[in-house]
Amino acid sequence: MGFYTRVIVPRLIHRAMREEMLLPLRQRVLQGVAGRVLEIGVGSGLNLPLYGRGVTSLQAVDPSPYLLGLARRTAGWLPFPVILLEQSAEHLPLPDASIDTAVVTWALCSIPDPLAALREVRRVLAPGGQLRFLEHGLSSVPELARWQQRLTPLWRRLAGGCHLDRRIDRLLERAGFSIEQMETGHLLPGPRLLTFHYLGSARR
Fold first, then answer.
1. Are 89 and 113 in contact (CB under 8 A)?
2. Which end of the chain is more exposed for a tag (fewer CB within 10 A), N or C?
3. Per its UniProt record, what InterPro entries does this chain match (predicted)?
């Protein structure tokens, strides 16, 4: 892993993800999350202060030691136990059916094998457990989608493996989830290549 990917990219991610305009979407996806929670791609922990009193414990994974260091500063103030693990989401060190609710926000775009990660999430969710998701991905507009597919090989080299062209709904369905509700569209201002979003929940 080169210096750019190891050192520069995590700092750029933290700066981009703490934009105030993202807060309302974070609040929407986390509203009512409860029980034993897993967050994959926790990053610098920007979701952590938004978890409510219904959470009894939180386990979270991320491969970046720099971002997890920032997350630990917030985790220490939370009123429930938090375990932060430096590791990939494709292999979760958790027992089957040990989680009530899973959360992923702006992470499936850059996980090397998102299908494997989602299958792992499904494995650790209890029967009937819920996955909350908020992700950018492939547009439903064919012309824009074609540009996303053309530019993804260059973009992922510049942006830490981020893909512009992943169909989040199809990944969820292939992993065995049943989508309960989902909103799609340009949920944020900004470049249309980056702002087509999938927001919703799915059941194990």
1. no
2. N
3. Methyltransf_11, SAM-dependent_MTases_sf, Thiol_S-MT
Please provide the average confidence, as pLDDT, over all residues in the chain. Answer: 96
CA 55 to chain centre: 18
Q: Which residues pair with 86 in a beta bridge?
A: 62
Structure-block tokens of residue 170: 């199809």
List strands edge to edge, sheet with 55-62: 82-86, 55-62, 35-40, 99-105, 125-136, 196-203, 178-186
pLDDT in tens, 24-58: 999 999 999 999 999 999 999 999 999 999 999 99
Other CB atoms within 10 Å distance of the CB of residue 163:
21
* CATH number among 1.20.120.520, 3.40.640.10, 3.50.50.60, 3.40.50.150, domain 3-203: 3.40.50.150
- Percentage of the chain exceeding pLDDT 70: 100
**Model pTM?**
0.95
Contact (CB, 8 A) for 130 and 189: no
